[in-house]
Structures are given as structure tokens and as C-alpha cells.
Amino acid sequence: QVQLVESPGGLVQAGGSLRLSCAASGSIFSINAMGWYRQAPGKQRELVASIASGGRTNYADSVKGRFTISRDNAKNTVYLQMNSLKPEDTAVYYCNAAVIQRVSPQFSERDYWGQGTQVTVSS
Predict the structure, then answer these.
(1) What is the distance between the alpha carbons of residues 17 and 107, in angstroms, rounded to a whole number?
(2) What does pLDDT average to over the chain?
(3) Tell me: the pLDDT tens digits for 3-46?
(4) CB neighbours of 59 closer than 8 A, spacing ≥ 6?
(5) Average pLDDT over every residue of 44-71
(6) For residues 78-89, average pLDDT
(7) Are 108 and 100 in contact (CB under 8 A)?
(8) DSSP sequence for the chain
């Protein structure tokens, strides 16, 4: 019922910038938190950034000052602006959304995930 579709990633030189987007669609009443995670080869998935429905943000220490997360509630879309990219940012990036769905007469929150997109930063 709910799908999250991410924009393509890309190959970027160190110091460059890239913006990712993720749009949710389907049976959505509202969306609470949205976030971006990443997983590099041989490493565990880690939270990169999150944003609450009201706009409050949280960032991993490794990306603070370089990445910016934002959202467009009218479009059910979350963005990740990545600046000053480093080779260690290379990973598959996944978006996540805590979606509120109504199963009458109740409401239920469930996490949905994007398909993942490859970001490669060359040195």
C-alpha cells in the first residue's frame, strides 16, 4: 500500500555535492519521522539524518555541518542535501518513513523503506 521511491544516486568527486530525494506514495494518512540511513560494504547500517513532522532534525556526528535533511509534507517527500562529500560517505543510502495509516477505527504506524541508491565519492 505504501512505497518509497528514491532518486538515483551517483558518482561524485570528493568535495562535491549531491541531493537525494525520496517520495512516499500510497495509502498514507500522515507521516511522522522521516530519515536517511546508509550502509557501506562490510559495515552495518547507520542513521545519517532524521527529521520530525514539525521539522526538528537530527544528524550523525560524521555528517554534521555537511548534510542537510529537509521535507515537503505536501509531497510526502524527504531530501538529503550532501555537501563537501568525502570518500567515506560512499554507501548505499536508504530512506525511511514512519507512516500513519488508518485501519478504521484505529490508526497504525509502520516503517517503510526505499529501495536504496548508490552514492560513490571518488578521491
Answers:
(1) 39
(2) 97
(3) 999 999 999 999 999 999 999 999 999 999 999 999 999 999 99
(4) 48, 49, 67, 69
(5) 97
(6) 98
(7) yes
(8) -EEEEEPP-EEEETT--EEEEEEEEES-SEEEEEEEEEE-TTS--EEEEEE-TTS-EEE-TTTTTTEEEEEEGGGTEEEEEE-S--GGG-EEEEEEEEEEEEETTEEEEEEEEB--EEEEEE-
Residue with cell 562535491: 16
Which CA distances in Å does 104 have to 23, 24, 86? Answer: 25, 21, 47
Residue whose entry in the numeric block shows the C-alpha cell 562490510: 42
* φ/ψ of residue 73, rounded to 5: -65, -30
> Sorting pLDDT into bands at 50, 70 and 90, what band is 1?
confident
Query: 12-48 b/e with 16+ CB inside 10 Å = b?
Result: beeeeebebbbbbeeebeebebbbbbbeeeeeeeeeb
